[in-house]
Give the backbone structure.
Amino acid sequence: MALLTVKDLHIHFHTRNGIVKAVNGVEFSLEKGETLGIVGESGSGKTVCCYSLLGLLPTPPARIESGSAMFEGNDLLNMSEQDLRKIRGNRIAMIFQDPMTSLNPFMKLGEQLTEPLTTHNDISKQEARKRAIAAMQEVGIPEPERRIDCYPHEFSGGMRQRVMIAMALVTEPDILIADEPTTALDVTIQAQILDLIKKLQRERSISVIFISHDLGVIAGCADKIIVMHEGNIVESGTTDEIYYQTKHDYTKKLLNAIPSSAKPESAVFHAEEGSEPIFKIDGLLTHFPISDGGVFSGKTDECCKAVDDVSLQLLEGETLGLVGESGCGKSTMAKSIMRLVDITAGSITLNGKDLTRLEGEELKTARAEFQMVFQDPYASLNPRMTVYDLLAEAIYVQKNCSKDELLKQVVSLMDDVGLPAKAIRKYPHEFSGGQRQRIAIARALALKPRLLIADEPVSALDVTIQAQILDLLLELVKKYQITMIFISHDLSVVRYLTDRTAVMYGGKIVEYGNTEDVFNNPQHLYTKSLLSAIPIADPNKERTRQRVAYTADQIA
Amino acid sequence: MTQSSETTAEQSIIDLDSVESGTSLWEDAWNRLQQNKLAMFGLYVVSFMIIIALLTPWITPYSYFEQDLDLGATAPSAAHWLGTDTLGRDLLTRIMYGSRISLMVGFLATAVALSIGVLWGTVSGYFGGRVDAFMMRTVDILYALPFTIFIILLMVVFGRNILLLFMAIGAVEWLTMARIVRGQVLSIRQQEYIDAAITMGLPKRQIMLRHVIPNTLGTIIIYVTLTIPNVILLESFLSFLGLGVQPPQSSWGLLISYGVETMEEYPWLLIFPAVVLSVTLFSLNFLGDGLRDALDPKASRD
Amino acid sequence: MIKFIFIRLLQAIPVLLIVMTITFVLIHAAPGGPFSAERAVPPEVIEALNAQYNLDDPVHVQFFIYLNNVLHGDFGPSFKYTGRSVTEVIAAGMPITFELGLYAMLIALILGISAGVIASLKPNTMQDYVPMSLAMTGICLPTFVMGPLMVLVFAIWLDWLPVSGWGYIPGDKILPSLTLGFAYAAYIARLSRGGMLEILSQDFIRTARAKGLSTAAIVFRHALRGGMQPVVSFMGPALAGLLSGSFVVETIFQIPGMGRYFVQAAFNRDYTLILGTTIFFATLIIIFNLLADIVTVWLNPRLRDSSNSSN
């Protein structure tokens, strides 16, 4: 008999604006030692479904309308809070998406790690502490005896996720529910955490429910998969069935949304003989003074070398992918080019003008030539302005023109990015994330720039939406012959979109070349490690691949 | 510059009928506020109070200062709905005249606080760096001063002067306003849409006017609504101690303090002014809380 | 931490000087002197009195004489209470005000925190509405309304408790303490609710629930420490507010504490007593603000060791 059997689960949210059917008849079962992957985009109900098993849903507004979840002969959905509490964190444990916020910042790790033990068992404090230290050791935290008395803020994101895992496993549960456990982490850290979960699962033969939006992440660790869409299971089966004999259109759409190939041939950039670069960066340095930001903050002489001696060149119409993990300086570089932060040294030349030396009116006029699409379309549009105001403002800043002309241009911009003209008077909050990013792209293109910087423009969006926005960008850049710098942590996106790739680490560009060369034949250890860490949506490849590890010393 | 410019021009380029009208955040907030019964109750009561206060000299049959010692204190009756005080003056009339003073001090002092606070906070948040550090240190130091004591001293020293009173109260309340506005300006300046405006080449002044200030308004409105009851309270407190308005003028605090003196014999002289003051404070606080729920973007998510 | 306290103590010095200067200037700018009210006194006597208290010197000279005295712990003699020094008057009134303040604060904290925490556990239900409506009542019934109303009901109509006094008849401390405490209980309840709601919506509370902890363990072990931060930072201003509240309560209940002395001193233009009490109050407020800041930092481990960590 299966360890956990969920049948006919229906969950509705009763909100002020009516009923939202979050989960509609979900069914699955989980055997001992098995890993079940639940895949879906945001709003698919995958998380709601798992939270309901442990009674973690806020009720109201959530209500479990029907269904059962049998675990060892008891129905988890029909249990008293008291009985359920004995199972939570003891027999079924859970880890969450964001390790930065999931640990209590006011408590020492030791307190938090021993809590599941002391809550569920009759066990002495010393014994609990001993077992907590052993668990920390097992998940690969160095010096656990010392670290156990630290507070969470003294740990990095990856280390905190290890702590979360240790905390979940310390009671030796039967089932581990992992809710997007690597989504908030960098790829190389993600690879380490995934390897750790796989290793622990093998050694302890616990069952895992792995929730993710990323078919690449799921491919390597799941035995069977259910694909969810808008509260329904659209497809379920073994991992190989899902990937190699895909039946449902939605699953196909998800799989196709992951750009796994090189740039389409039609979009590949071909340089004309002897053409001069339109954009040049020479010896760019951007340093920030370090202050600790706390109540004791004082000035220090130290500084953070966010961008450290970067030089590169781009031809007109060429697309550059700038890749790196968080904190590598890629966003600071974008802001330096955009004159949003002051640079320390170097020059940035666009179309023969040194952008770093422009001031006042000259800078204002020149700004039309270099524009930016920001990461978060929820934050980059002023919530109190209509689409018309947002786009018209961009045009009007640079050129005083008649209302008629303004309106005509706004409508044509909206057409360019695939927004209906009738939505012209709507406000940003009335659009979806993807549509908002279209507005942001339209705004950036309003001034007909020569250079476009796109800073992680799709990382806040669902995969299927991502693909649409990427294709839109590709099309517009081609249409208007725009030179683009595309910043991303996602290597597959960069491969799909760009002609040249620069890999950034610690403020420096460690590898720079034609995109296909960088991907097929990486030279630098860091690039190799990064490439080996990207999850591939192909179970056979994913199960057998070897990671290239690196240490900071080797790179410096 | 581009506000609602789609009149005749629009027809020529797109079909006007097909344009869907959007709902701005203000309209959203207003809709949410209307659903909040307590807040709407507060809004109605406050509006009612203001109208009555404005019309008082024309609608009361009695004067607030003429005494009728023969009549003395009487309980509520048909002629005097809320009774009369020990000097035979109609209590309702005195409460109504008192509301003119109390509400005026409330609104004017808040206006003073608002002007200084918004200016100070905006400049501080806008320039940042040393200017900000200096301006905020000043606020910090002023914060540590025992202001209630100073106001009491001011009143004692310069006599009970209503103009001085609301200047003094305004001068205290602006500190919090300045802090709140600065915090808002700073957090909005970090938003990506401000970066976007900079990269478009929009001049700093325009960025402030079009992007920063409209987005701080919500918080300012909430805070203003919650400052008014505080000011009314402070004025009543001073009048109660005998340091507010000068008799025969009346204010709620003064009426309450008279009421306390005679509460054993004539409890209505204490109870009615106390009820009016409390209902006003309730209404303003309900309205303020309702506005916070309606305007706070966090609340709009669920 | 020591550096932080030291810096804050240094900052207190200019604040105190400003307080002193403003008060001094304000009082001396006032028309009429402390002895002008006593009509029967012949002019020679007033001159003699003025000379005795250095009132005939230029204002700045008086200021430095006074400053020098204060630094030696001497606030001078009271003008009105002849034969008593300001220090003596403060020493007589202070214990009473402190006791009143202490009871009021205890009532405020106990009532306020429990009401706020209870309300935050089930937001937008009766369990939230009832304590929060009570809190709103506390805010909208200021001390000078609350006090007389309580006297009217409990002392005059029901005759359960004494009308006034402090320590004369058993039970006479109850009404003043409740009056003063209730207003702050209301503020504290609202702040605790807000702080708790903020913390309870955090991811780490979900983690705690997923560990199978009981509601009590979640509230006491995980949420209170963070949820009480707004209350802690309110303690500084609250204690300052308690002082001005004590003016009203001590006046209503005829309690011979500092607050009543201060109000009377202000009416009587008792220069030295006003200056003395103002400086004394200001010092108290500064100390309480400092304590509140220290506790805030101490409660938050991230702030606590930001002095020795770096990015």
User: Anything to note?
Assistant: Chain B has eleven helices and no strands. Chain B has a mean pLDDT of 80. Chain B touches chain A at residues 1-3, 5-6, 9-10, 12-15, 18-26, 28, 191-193, 195-203, 210-211, 214-215, 297, 302 (CB under 8 Å).
